[in-house]
Every structure is written in structure tokens, then in C-alpha cells.
């Protein structure tokens, strides 16, 4: 009895003097659009808070100087789409520490680790150990966006894909000319790259034989050029194999470039070297994703529409017919929060955290444990009926970030792009080794309360049981 009392007393004493559970750091980015905005127009505020594990939870408070505008809850499903990417034969992710890590094919340096050796598990991108908020992958190159709004690229550089003014391959990240600040999104196509600025302008660089840069020419560019007619009002951009699409603040979609399968969506198969409107999508679109030769859009109602090449059923309409205008994806008329188009397949993430994929199932890219073939309508990914935060489709592989704070991949693994330490193809989700990914929460608030003049907007996250507080500021101008 005395011994029992001694043990209990000792345990209580240790509990009283033991240090509190160490919290993880959180990182915040605040975006405001449009900027500048006219008086009376709605300004959309978006706070992104990165953490680890289950991710940050709770509210973000928005203020204009010392005046509180409002507060919004963090949502984690679909919030971190930019933190995970699938290239043609590689993949990259933003780590919980804010670094960039890549794995898979590395023939021309797409992993950014200073070598051309393929890696079957994640490696650090040299020089990008912190402050990274987004990653994107092409066929043989990759790019990252920093918290300061700078774009860094590495890998294959034929025709100036990396945007550094040369055509020399880079085994480590280099800065993109003229984009050392002010960028809010970056998107890699197959052999071109595009960026979206805080002013809502679209810029592209690299290979341009089909007009995928959108500058009205077919001349390749080694540094960024303006996309014709898109100097403002753009809220999202995505790159396909040889085409590009953008979504505007009005919810419209415009595409340009190669159009042999109708991937531009204007009802023709004629190429366009400058943006054209996608038929039927003049409003209501909140997300876009371009695949090999197809494109998809997500509406505010949670519906998915796709157009372009459909020989593997990647449009999801139950047929194998190419479509030059958008068609509804079967069974996905509501409830979807994010989409990702791969080379020949497409995936969607629902608000319940389920992943559905359709199109080519070569090497198991659809993740349903079935034999290779194709599926022209969405089907569930084995084991991912809930709890998924992010989905990213690559060449013939796919990756997802789960609510447990882990990345899983499936599909082709010739180059180690599954990241499980092998080269064995996987037809169901398989954990990626040696990766602690960033888990992002997003809070949205719209306001019309800002008066004419310059404003300093702020967002504050008070922290939660697992994360320290963080905050961010963003300038905003309101004009008469």
C-alpha cells in the first residue's frame, strides 16, 4: 500500500513539473482580390494556414488596421491543392516545415536535388527548405512559389521553360525573371509555365509552338510574357500538355493553345494563340484543371464539367467521344470541392473527403484495385471514401493527402513516383516514405466595407491545441 502511494505520488509530481506538449509552428498567407478594387465592390479575403498532423483548426480573424472586419472558420478539405502536385513521372509536396520535397523521375533535374538520379522516396529540393507555399510539376520540370510571391523553377529548360532567360537545364531552383514578388499562383504545363499575379494578371513562358503562352504568337519565350487580354481579373490558372486555361473573378473560363481534341472548349478544333471563351462557362466557375488534352471546371454548385480528349473516358460523361464544349461528369452534379486532371485521367475530391477518379487506368492510376483499362464514369478510390484533404493527378499516377497528415500515391511507378521506396506499380493508395507534408486550412471572407484609399489588411490565427499562433498582412487599394 505504501509502495502504491509512493508510485502515485511520484507520477503526480512528474506530471506537475513536466513541460507542456510542444506545439508545432503554423504559417499563414493572406490573399486579397481584386487589388485594386473599386469602391463598393466585393473584396475576397483568403487566409491560408499551414500546419502538420491533423492540420490547423478554429477561426481566423480579419481586420483593416485596428478595425475587425469579421472572422471565418478554417476549412481543410480541398484547401491545400497547391501543396501537392503530380508531374508526368514525378511528384512534389510542400513539407510541414515549409520546404519543397520531390520524388520520381529526374532525368533532367525535375527533383531539384542537384542530380539527375531518380528517387523512389522524397528528397529535399536544394535551397527551398522554408517559405514555400505551392508546388507544380510539368513533364521534366518543376516550380515552387514562395511566401514572398517569388517563383523558382528547375529541371528541363528547352525553349526557356524555367523562365530564367536561358535554355540551360537547372538541377537546382533558379528565379524566374521579373517574378521575384507579387505572384499568388504558379502552374506548370508540359513544356511551358504560367503564373498569376496579385493584380490578377496572367503571365506565361516556355515552349509556344501551339500558342499555349497566349500572347498572340507561336514564338517560344525564355522569360514571362503577358497573356493577351488577361492583365487583370484572373483568379486561377492551369497548364495542360499544350494548352492553358484561366478562370476570371466573374466565374468565366478562357483557354488557349492547341485544340486538336477540343480542349479549348470553344466548339471548334482550331488552335488559338490568345484566350477565347469556353462555351457555356461565362459565370459560376470556382476551379479549373487542365490535363493532357482535356480540361475540367468546378462550379460553385459543386458540379464538374469537362471537355476535350475522351479516348480513355477522361471526361467522365460515360462515353469515349471527344467533346469541344463542356459536358457534365456523370454523378458529379454537386458536392465536389476540388478537381485534378492528369494526362489521361481525372479525379475529384468531395466535401466528405472522398476521392473519385475516371479515365485511363493504366498502371492503376484510378486506384480502384482493378485491372488496367479505362472507366468513363467516376468511381471510388480504394480506401479513400473519407478523410482526404488534397488530390493531385499526374501522368499515370495520382497522390492524395489524408486527414491523418500523410500522403499516399498509386499508379505507375517506373521512376519511383509513388514514393514508397520501390518501382512496383500500385493499384491502390500506398504511403509515401519520409514525408511530413504541410496540412493547410483555408478561411474565406468577403467584404464591401473598405473605403477609398490604401489599407493594410491583417489575418490572425490564435493557434489551437497543436499549433502556435500566426498572422499575415496584405496591402489593398480601393479606388473611386
Automatic annotation (TrEMBL):
PROSITE patterns assigned: RCC1_3 (PS50012)
GO MF term list: guanyl-nucleotide exchange factor activity
Biased amino acid composition, Polar residues: 471-480
Keyword Nuclease: no
Keywords tagged on the record: Guanine-nucleotide releasing factor, Repeat, Signal
Top-level taxon of the source organism: Bacteria
InterPro entries for this protein: Ran_GTPase-activating (IPR051553), RCC1-like_dom (IPR058923), RCC1/BLIP-II (IPR009091), Reg_chr_condens (IPR000408)
Cited Pfam families: RCC1, RCC1_2, WD40_RLD
Span list, region Disordered: 461-480
Domain (RCC1-like) ranges: 224-435
Signal peptide: 1-22
Gene Ontology CC: cytoplasm
Keyword Repeat: yes
Name of the protein described by the UniProt record: Chromosome condensation regulator RCC1
Organism: Methylosinus trichosporium (strain ATCC 35070 / NCIMB 11131 / UNIQEM 75 / OB3b)
Source lineage: Bacteria, Pseudomonadati, Pseudomonadota, Alphaproteobacteria, Hyphomicrobiales
Amino acid at each position: 500500500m505504501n509502495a502504491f502511494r509512493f508510485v502515485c505520488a511520484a507520477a503526480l509530481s512528474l506530471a506537475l513539473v513536466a513541460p507542456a506538449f510542444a506545439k508545432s509552428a503554423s504559417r499563414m498567407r493572406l490573399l486579397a482580390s481584386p487589388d485594386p478594387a473599386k469602391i463598393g465592390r466585393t473584396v475576397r479575403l483568403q487566409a491560408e494556414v499551414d500546419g502538420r498532423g491533423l492540420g490547423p483548426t478554429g477561426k481566423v480573424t480579419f481586420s483593416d488596421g485596428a478595425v475587425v472586419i469579421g472572422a471565418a472558420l478554417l476549412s481543410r478539405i480541398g484547401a491545400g491543392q497547391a501543396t501537392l502536385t503530380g508531374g508526368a513521372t514525378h511528384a512534389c509536396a510542400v513539407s510541414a516545415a515549409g520546404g519543397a520535397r520531390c520524388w520520381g523521375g529526374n532525368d533532367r533535374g525535375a527533383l531539384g536535388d542537384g542530380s539527375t538520379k531518380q528517387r523512389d522516396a522524397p528528397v529535399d529540393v536544394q535551397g527551398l527548405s522554408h517559405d514555400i507555399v505551392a508546388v507544380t510539376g510539368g513533364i521534366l520540370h518543376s516550380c515552387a512559389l514562395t511566401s514572398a510571391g517569388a517563383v523558382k523553377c528547375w529541371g528541363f529548360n528547352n525553349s526557356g521553360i524555367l523562365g530564367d532567360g536561358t535554355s540551360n537545364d537547372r538541377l537546382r531552383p533558379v528565379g524566374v525573371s521579373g517574378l521575384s514578388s507579387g505572384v499568388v499562383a504558379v502552374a506548370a504545363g508540359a513544356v511551358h509555365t504560367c503564373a498569376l499575379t496579385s493584380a490578377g494578371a496572367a503571365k506565361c513562358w516556355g515552349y509556344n509552338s501551339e500558342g499555349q503562352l497566349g500572347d498572340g504568337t507561336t514564338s517560344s519565350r525564355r522569360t514571362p510574357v503577358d497573356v493577351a487580354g488577361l492583365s487583370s481579373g484572373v483568379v486561377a490558372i492551369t497548364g495542360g500538355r499544350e494548352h492553358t486555361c484561366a478562370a476570371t473573378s466573374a466565374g468565366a473560363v478562357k483557354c488557349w493553345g492547341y485544340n486538336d481534341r477540343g480542349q479549348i472548349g470553344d466548339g471548334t478544333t482550331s488552335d488559338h494563340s490568345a484566350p477565347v471563351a469556353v462555351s457555356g462557362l461565362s459565370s459560376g466557375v470556382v476551379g479549373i484543371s487542365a490535363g493532357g488534352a482535356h480540361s475540367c471546371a468546378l462550379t460553385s454548385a459543386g458540379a464538374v464539367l469537362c471537355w476535350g480528349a475522351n479516348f480513355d473516358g477522361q471526361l467522365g460523361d460515360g462515353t469515349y467521344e471527344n467533346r469541344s464544349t463542356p459536358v457534365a461528369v456523370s454523378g458529379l452534379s454537386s458536392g465536389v470541392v476540388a478537381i485534378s486532371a492528369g494526362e489521361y485521367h481525372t479525379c475529384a475530391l468531395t466535401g466528405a473527403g472522398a476521392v473519385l477518379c475516371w479515365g485511363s487506368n493504366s498502371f492503376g492510376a484510378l486506384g480502384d484495385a482493378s485491372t488496367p483499362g479505362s472507366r468513363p464514369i467516376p468511381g471510388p478510390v480504394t480506401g479513400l471514401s473519407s478523410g482526404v484533404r488534397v488530390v493531385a493527378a499526374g501522368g499515370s499516377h495520382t497522390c492524395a493527402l489524408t486527414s491523418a497528415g500523410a500522403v499516399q500515391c498509386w499508379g505507375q511507378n517506373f521512376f519511383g513516383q509513388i514514393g514508397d521506396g520501390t518501382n512496383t506499380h500500385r493499384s491502390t493508395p500506398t504511403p509515401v516514405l519520409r514525408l511530413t507534408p504541410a496540412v493547410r486550412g483555408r478561411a474565406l471572407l468577403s467584404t464591401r466595407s473598405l473605403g477609398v484609399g490604401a489599407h493594410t489588411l491583417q489575418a490572425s490565427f490564435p493557434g489551437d491545441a497543436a499549433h502556435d499562433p500566426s498572422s499575415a498582412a496584405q496591402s489593398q487599394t480601393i479606388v473611386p
